[in-house]
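Notes to self after the call with IL:
- keep both proteins in one doc
- input above output, always
- annotate only the second one for now

Protein 1:
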Amino acid sequence: MQVYTFDNTLDGLLTAVFDSFSLRQQEVMLLTEGEQLTLFAGEPHVVASDEEKAQRVWKGLEKHLLGESLRVITISWMSEERALNQPLFNLICKVFRTTTKPTPGQSTLPCRQPQGMRTDIMHNASDPDVLAVRNICRRVLHEQLRMKQFVRFQKAKDGTYLAVVSPDHNVLPLVVDHFEDRFRDQAWLIYDAKRHYGFYKDASGGGKRPERAIRISFEDEAKVPFDLANGKLNDDVLSENDRLFQELWRTYFKAICIKERMNPRKQLSDMPRRYWKYMTEKNG
């Protein structure tokens, strides 16, 4: 089996697919740069990420797959899991080896399909590569939902709302639309401390069309007015009203807790511990 190494980018993976067909090598083990080679592996083929080749592969996928199948691929890639690389590579190669064409308007997200309906390869749940990609896609979508539930904003003196997150998967681009709709006329920043970038939306006023959130990053995170470890705004920039509201929220959270009905296991299932450090009700 031929070993390929790539730069762990989506363009790199698509380029690897291009190379495998160009070199007519069907049995390929895909590894990221620096990963340990398997025993008795020969000299690996180093994939040079090429945007033009990647675009050609992606355009080919657009011809063979429905839009929602492409969405499954892109969402699964946001998982940032190395376990995705091999099944996704295998899956894309299989797409170009199959002659089955999808039916327009047919859903390809993980769900049951009516019997007798023509499908694309993404519906073949018996295929281990399809199953692996779809399961990872589910995990990313589940993380997206939790981000909407567990994001806690603080208000700065200038009126900007801040939330710091650190999700397992790179889901911030998937939740931006939700918060743009929720905070239409307010300024806010959601910052991913794990990936060192965020989305900022300026306040819109005067009846103008609301501005879209923009992606931002900081050259020196040590100078930002909030703590990346717990998401708390510095005292000198935190709004006085927000400090009061935080205390009220913590008091309310404790007051509604009935000790006789406490179920720590259920609480951890509904609200995993990894989110606690950025949640107001869990931090005094």
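Protein 2 (the one to annotate):
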Amino acid sequence: MEMRVIKDALGASVIEGENRLNTVVEYVYASDLMSDVLAFGRSNSVLLTGLATQQAVISAHMAEFKGIVFVRGKKPKDGSCKFARDSHMVLLCADMDMYEACIRVESAARQTDPAAGTKLAEHKAEEMLLSNELFIEGSDFANAGMVSTEVKSILKKIGLDPRLIRRVAISTYEGEMNVVMHAERAKVKLSVTPRHIEIVIDDEGKGIPDVELAMQEGFTTATEEMRAMGFGSGMGLPNIKKNSDEMEIKSEVGKGTRLEMRFFI
């Protein structure tokens, strides 16, 4: 279904992407919890949310969503529009609540012939070797997600399988948000060989007292401020484990945490 059909069904206004309303989406995902979007959302989806922040746009981008409908008349007032423009996403605003929006989109889908999905091409570079270092500052919520966006951009330029890039991007973003929320700073090292991609996030911070407990779904130490941004459901580390082929965590209380993620090409 085209974004144009969704716009018309909801009587929505266009915030960003007027020239991309012919973008085809295959699924609709409704949530205000960005951790769930990253954990359960599917590629080529449109996100319905009442969370009108840049983090919602970045989360949707990491999950390979094509657009967002902000419900309840909400419009982002931060850098969301520019990020969406640079990422070729469509942003819409609808006055109705999320439940009604979902009903209307489903009704429109039943009346529309689903567009044929495009098969994602798999690309594997015969010869490649890349190493790059990036840095994350703790508590810098304004720029949270920029490192993950850069990693995703680098991997796209190499020409890797989009499905692989999506897993790497989501895992890196979850790791980056953990640093922003819980550490002082971190160095991120991206390494690409003909056989695998490796992301290592070395942070300086309070560390994790009980790694096994932190790996359990639903366990969180997030503050109310973090929850208001759509994070802190306790899905971060479990989601990284789900999306990576290999994952290792080493942490020392009072010093920091080293997170290693590997993805086979």
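Annotation: Residues 114-128 have pLDDT under 50 and may be disordered. The longest helix spans residues 162-182.
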